[in-house]
Fold each of these.
Amino acid sequence: MTRATPAEDACTNALPTAALGGPVSHAVSRVARLHRIAAGKVLKGVDLYPGQELLMMHLWDRGAVRQTELIRALELDPSTVTKMLQRLEQTGHVRRRPDPADRRAVLVEATDESCALHTAVENAWGSLEEHTLAGLDPAERTELVRLLAKVEENLCRETEDCPDRRGAASG
Amino acid sequence: MTRATPAEDACTNALPTAALGGPVSHAVSRVARLHRIAAGKVLKGVDLYPGQELLMMHLWDRGAVRQTELIRALELDPSTVTKMLQRLEQTGHVRRRPDPADRRAVLVEATDESCALHTAVENAWGSLEEHTLAGLDPAERTELVRLLAKVEENLCRETEDCPDRRGAASG
DNA sequence: ACCCATTCATTGGCCGACCAAGGTAAAGTT
DNA sequence: AACTTTACCTTGGTCGGCCAATGAATGGGT
C-alpha cells in the first residue's frame, strides 16, 4: 500500500501498466487532455475552440500574414490550418484574401470584430494559466517550464517536426 | 539577444503572445502534440493509433471488462470509447460480446492475436518514455512527475472530470 | 525559352475527443 | 405492479490533428 500518485488511486487504486511503464508519458496525456478541456471552458465565452485561440493570437500580434507563416508559427500541418481558417472565416473571426505579390499564397488577417475578443482571450489564457499552476510556488513554476522545455527539445529532435533547429540549446 | 527558450527562438525568435501570457499552457500544448506524434511513430509498428494503446493495455491487464470500466479507467467520453472499440474490433484487436448478467452492458476483451502485441507495446512505451526524458537526471524526472501530478490535480479539480476524488493527495 | 523542382494551399480520408440526444434495460419509489 | 430515475451504450455531429495526394504558381537550371 504505497498510496502512490493520487490520481490513479482515486479510480481503482491499481496502477495501470501504462503508468508503470511510462509515468511521464501517461501524465503528459492526461494533463494535456484536462488542460484542453479547461481551455475549452474558458474559451466558450469568446466563441472559440481550443486551438483556435493560438491562431488568433498570432494574427492579433502580426496582422496580415500568409498561411505559411501560421503553419510555421503554430507548427501545425498545413491541412489543419486550412481547415481551421475555413471555420474561423465562417464564424467571422478571420478574413482571407489573395496575396497580390504571390498568386498562390493567401493573406490572412483578424477581422475587426475579432479584435474585440483580443483582451478577453488574453484574460482567459491568464486565468487558465493561473488555474493550471495553482499551488505551485514561483520556483516550482520556473522548474516546470524548464523541464517541459527540455522534454519538448527531446521530442522535437527525433520527431524532426521543428524545421529550423539551429543548436541554440543550453542550460 | 537574450536567446530565451530554444524552441521559439528557432522559429521566429519573437515569442508569441501566447507564450508570454501562459508559458506553461503553451508548453503543455506543444509537448502534448509532439508526444502524440512520437507515440504515433512508435506505435505504427504494432498497428495501433495513439490512444488505442492505453485501452489495450487496460484490457491486457484486466481481461474481459465492461465498457464502463474502460470509460472510468481511461477517463474518456463514452462515445469516444464506443468508437475506438468499433475500430479496434474491426482491426481484430478486440472482441465484444453481450454481458449475460446485464443485458444493456457489453463485455470487451483483447483477442489472442492482440496479446502478441502486448510486449511490443510495452517496449514501445518504454522507449517513448526514455526518448521523452532523455537528458533528464533521476531527480529531474521525479520532480517533473511530481509537478505534473500537481498540475493534473489542479485541472482535475475544477474540471470535475475525475469522478471519485477522495483527498489522497500528499507529497 | 523550356523544363523540373519547390513552395503554397486545398481536398479527402482517417483517428481521437467532445457534446447532445436517443434507446434499452436495470434499479429504486410509490 | 406501475412509474420514475438511473445506468449502459450507440448514433450523429463538430473540432483539432495527421497523412497522402493534388492543383496552381513561382523559381532555378540548362
Amino acid sequence: MATRTDTLTLEVVELIGTVVARYHEEYDRAAAEHSLTGAQARVLGLLSLDPLPMRKIAVRLKCEPSNVTGIVDRLETRGLVERRPDPADRRVKLAAATETGRRTARELRDALDFAREPLAGLSDAERTVLRDLLRRMLGEETP
Amino acid sequence: MATRTDTLTLEVVELIGTVVARYHEEYDRAAAEHSLTGAQARVLGLLSLDPLPMRKIAVRLKCEPSNVTGIVDRLETRGLVERRPDPADRRVKLAAATETGRRTARELRDALDFAREPLAGLSDAERTVLRDLLRRMLGEETP
DNA sequence: ACCGATTTACTTGACATCATGAAATATTCA
DNA sequence: TGAATATTTCATGATGTCAAGTAAATCGGT
C-alpha cells in the first residue's frame, strides 16, 4: 500500500497509459489503411494463424458470441474470411482466413511498427531487462 | 531493421499487447462498477480535474466534437457533469464535473488497481529502470 | 441401446453506445 | 459584411449486450 501514491509509481502508471494510447493509435491507423476497424483487424489476425470456432473467437475477444457473428459477417462479405463446417461437430462453424485474408493480415503485421521501431533504440540488454520487468509486472513469473 | 523479427523484440511486443489488454479490462471493470462505459469514465476523469470546453474534450479523446455531445449528454443526465456558459466566449460550453461527479471520479481512481498493485512487486530501483526504459521507448527523452 | 431433457453453438432481433461526416445555428473576429 | 469557430442535430455504421430461437450433441434413466 506504500506504493499507492508515490511519485515514481504514478509516473510509471502514466507512462503505461501513454503506451496504451500509442498502441491503439498505431493499431487503428494500420487497420484503417486496409479499411478495417480495430475489431476486424484483431479477428483477422487471429484467424490468419488458425481457423477458429465462433465461440473461441468470442472468448479471445472477451465479448458475446452474437457480437462475433457481425464482425465475421463483415470480413466474410469482403472475402477475407470464410465459414466452414466443423466435420467433428455440426453445430460448430469454423471461421478461417482466405488467401486474401492471410495476405492482408501479413501486410497489417508488417505495417504495425509500434514497439518494434521504438525498441530499436534499446540495446539487447535493455530489452531483456524490459521484458523481465514487464513479465514480473504481469505476474508471469519466469519459469 | 535488425530488430524486426528477433525473438526478444517479439516477446516484448507481445508483453506490451498483454499490458494493453489488461489495462482495458481493469479500466472497463472499474467503470462498469459505477455503471459507466469506458468513454464516460475517461471524460469524467478529465473533467474531475478541470472544466473543459467540448472542443478540448474532443481533442483529448481524439474524436469528433459531435461525438462528445452524446457522451456529455449521458453524464449530464446522470448528474455527474453540467454544462456552463463560458463568460469569455458565448459560443463555448464548458463541461464541468458536479460534486457527485468528482466523488465518482475519485472512487474510480481508487478502484483502478492496474499497474499500481502489480508495481508493488518491483523495488524502487526496478521501477526507476522501468520508468526510464518506457520513457526512451516512447521517445520522451529525459530532459 | 433407446429416448426425452438438458446443454452447447450459433444466429437473429431489439436496443444502447460510440464514432464519423454533413448541415444548421450562434457567435466571434478580421 | 464575410470568414472562421464552437456546438448541436441528423443520418449512418460498427460494436457491444441481452433474450429468444434453431440445430445438434450429450446425458441419464429405463
Amino acid sequence: MSVDPTAPLLPRDAVPLFAALGDSTRLSLLSRLQDGQPHAIVELTQGSGLTRQAVTKHLRVLERARLVISQREGRETRYVFDATGLNEARSYLEMASLQWDRAIDRLRLFVED
Amino acid sequence: MSVDPTAPLLPRDAVPLFAALGDSTRLSLLSRLQDGQPHAIVELTQGSGLTRQAVTKHLRVLERARLVISQREGRETRYVFDATGLNEARSYLEMASLQWDRAIDRLRLFVED
DNA sequence: TTTATATGCAACCATAAGGTTGCATATTGT
DNA sequence: ACAATATGCAACCTTATGGTTGCATATAAA
C-alpha cells in the first residue's frame, strides 16, 4: 500500500501543487527557504508585510503541496524547503512538454503527405 | 522596447502562470489541447460538465498565461495550445531546482569542516 | 516565578474565483 | 429570408481564499 516514488504525478495531485505556487507571497516564502536552512515563522513574517497568522496559513498550504516541511523545535515551528513538490511539478511539466513534442511530430508527418 | 525571449521568468510573471495551472478544469482543457489542433469553445465544452461561458472564462485565463492562443474563425473561436507559457513555467522550476542544488552543495561544504 | 516569546486555534471579513442564467449579435445552413 | 449555431457581454450567486483580530498556551529568558 505504499506509494511508488517514480510514478508520474496525476493531474489530480498537480492541481494543489500548482495552486500553491500560484501566489506571490508563497513564491517569495519559498525563495527565502531556498537556502536549505530551517526558518521559524516569526522570522519568515519579518518583511512580509503580513501578520504571523497569514504567513502561517501560507506555510501550511506549501506543506500540503510537499514544497516545505515543518518541524517543531521547542517553542518555535521551523519550516524547511522540501524538493519533493518541486520535483513533482517539474516532472509534470516535462511530461506535458514531451507529449507536446510528440503531437508536433505527428502533425508534421501529417502535413508532409 | 521588445522583450528578450531568453530572459528568465520573473516571479511576478510566474504567479498568474502557476495559478492558471492550479485548476483541474484548466488542466484538463490543456490536455485536450495538447493534440496541437484548434478546438472551438463548444467542442471543448462537451463532456466538461460545465456551461460554455464557464469554459470560456477558463480559456481566457489560460490565454493570459500564454498557455493557449485564440483565433477567431468565422463564427467560432478556436483555441490552440501555446508552448510559451509551458516553457516559462518549466524554466522557472528548473531555475529553482538549480538554486536548490547549489544551496545543498554549500550546506554540505559547511558541514564537512 | 514572573515576563517575554512563538505559536495554535477560532471567529470574522472582504474580495476574488468559479459558475450560472439571460440576452444581443454575427455567421452558417436551408 | 429564416432558422440554427457559436459567441460575447453583463449581472448575479456562492464559496474559496487571503487577511485580520483576539485569546489561550507552551517554552525560554530574567
Amino acid sequence: MNCRACSDPGKMPVFYQKVYAITARIPRGKVASYGQIASLAGNPFAARAVGNAMKQAPEMLSLPCHRVVRQSGELTACRSFGGAGGQRKLLEAEGITFRENGYVDMKQHQWKTEG
DNA sequence: TCCTTGACTTGTC
DNA sequence: CGACAAGCCAAGG
C-alpha cells in the first residue's frame, strides 16, 4: 500500500482526480457503473482505469465507492467494505433495492447524468 | 519506451 | 447463468 494520495490528494494523477470528482457526484440512492464514470471522465472505455482509481481512492475523500457497481448491477470486490455483503448493507441504507440474485436494480438506481 | 497489472465491458460457447 | 477470450485505458516499475 503506497497510495501517493495518502499524503496529498493533489498529487494524484489527473484521471484519478476526475474519477474521484465524478464518484463524489453520485447522488445518494443511486449507483454508477465504471463505464459511466469512465465516460464522464472522458474515456467510456477506461472503466478499468476507473477501477484502479477507486482502488487507490484515499479514505480521506470519503468517496461513495460503495455506489459504484458493475454495468450488470453486480457489486464490486466489496472486500474493502468490511467483508462481503458490507457494500450491500450500505446501499440498502441509501435506499437502493436489490434483486433476488443479489444484483442492484440498475433500471431504478443507475445514476443518470442527464438529470 | 516497453511490459505488467487491474474494483471493467462485451460477445461467444 | 457460467466460463473464456478479446479490447479498451491509465498508472507504475
